[in-house]
Specification:
The protein is mainly α and 398 residues long. It contains 14 helices and six strands.
Length: 398
């Protein structure tokens, strides 16, 4: 009997050592869409890979071609929008918006372009932040740095902080203002203080009351903020993002199955009477939910939402317009590059390989945006190319 017990104990020890050694490897994102961990645990999952549409059956482009297209798109972004001193020009108005600065920073860190990142960040921190009553970034300014509206835009503040954390991971921290991690943590503190409600919904801006935009919800970033800052409220901000998105899908709107959310809504998910339906703000929502799915995949609602979007836009991937009623009526026939990029990214969170390939092939075949209103198209063409090709990556600070 003693020999049997000894044998069992040895076998159990070997099993535990094996399981423990397996646990040392980085965890990769699951594509199942099922909740795998609690919100508290989710911030510790650091995926290192997710599939590229270029590798799926039916792709007309190799991974090398996709990588090069991403690089070319970034070069075009810089040549068309970024000034020599780091302002990202919103070509519609000729001014600078904090959104554009945040896009420039995120794209730069994704492309490992430290010189451009530092130039854009230096402009942002020099002109948009000093004197701001919230310690954040005025949303609108002239190209020479004169702030036209000091009110922060929450989506820009979130992406600036995320880009800074990634910069710290890729390049390490330097002297201020290039102490990226410290800067990011300070921004996160101000966002929590001024741009998150007491019950942890992300606000549209510090002064907004019962005015929200689901296109500002970036749950993957919020999970990382919880991990990097130790502030547990960020996990609830991620959860509340899904609560509000699904509250926006209502029988009376006819959008329960199509995933079309309003541009702006109240806390209960009701469309604001003065706001449009699924227009140029709302169309970004699928992209950010897909990022949460392909990076983490721990909340069943991410795949559920992306599958709704794929179900509506998948069959019309080459012909959809750029304005829709919540019930799905096309209100404009313009097949905009920004929408192609965002929705191509959005279907990456779905379970349809054919939709991923169709959108990817379509996106890869498109020309570079031109004309006065090219700013938004260039930005979202870049983001779409990165996410569909497996190049929109999480850079772990640790």
């Amino acid at each position: 009997m003693d020999t049997m017990r000894l044998t069992l104990w040895i076998a159990l020890l070997v099993l535990l050592l094996f399981v423990g050694s397996c646990g040392m490897a980085p965890l990769s994102a699951t594509q199942s869409g099922e909740t795998m961990t609690s919100p508290e645990e989710s911030s510790l999952i650091m995926p290192t890979y997710y599939p590229s549409a270029a590798t799926l059956s039916g792709s007309r482009y190799s991974q090398a071609s996709a990588d090069q297209r991403c690089a070319d798109a970034w070069a075009y972004f810089k040549s068309e929008l970024v000034t020599s001193d780091g302002a990202v020009v919103h070509t519609d108005s000729g001014n600078v918006v904090s959104e554009g600065q945040s896009y420039g920073m995120m794209l730069a860190v994704q492309h490992n372009d430290k010189a451009t990142f530092d130039r854009v960040w230096n402009w942002t921190s020099t002109y948009l932040q000093p004197g701001n009553r919230y310690g954040l970034f005025g949303w609108n300014a002239t190209t020479d740095g004169r702030v036209l509206d000091p009110m922060p835009a929450t989506d820009a503040d979130v992406m600036i902080a995320m880009a800074l954390f990634f910069a710290s991971s890729r390049w390490g921290d330097g002297k201020p203002p290039y102490d990226y991690s410290a800067q990011a943590k300070a921004i996160c503190r101000q966002i929590i203080k001024y741009e998150v409600t007491s019950d942890n919904y992300l606000k549209f801006s510090p002064d907004s009351e019962n005015f929200f935009s689901t296109s500002y919800f970036m749950p993957a970033f919020f999970r990382l903020f919880a991990h990097y800052t130790g502030e547990g409220r960020w996990n609830d901000v991620a959860d509340k993002s899904y609560v509000m998105i699904f509250n926006c899908l209502r029988p009376e709107y006819g959008n329960l199955d199509n995933g079309l959310v309003p541009n702006h809504n109240d806390k209960n998910g009701r469309k604001l009477s003065s706001g449009p339906d699924f227009f140029y703000d709302a169309m970004r929502t699928p992209f950010f939910i897909a990022v949460d799915q392909v990076w983490f995949g721990i909340d069943y609602r991410s795949s559920l939402y992306c599958n709704k979007i794929e179900g509506f836009f998948g069959p019309i991937y080459s012909s959809f317009g750029d304005k829709y009623s919540l019930s799905g009526t096309k209100l404009s026939g313009n097949h905009a590059e920004s929408w192609i990029g965002s929705l191509a990214g959005g279907v990456m969170g779905s379970s349809s390989s054919s939709a991923k390939v169709n959108f990817f092939n379509h996106l890869m075949s498109r020309s570079w945006p031109t004309g006065q209103y090219r700013y938004f198209d260039i930005c979202w063409q870049n983001f779409g190319l990165l996410l569909t090709s497996g190049n929109f990556k999480l850079y772990n600070e640790e």
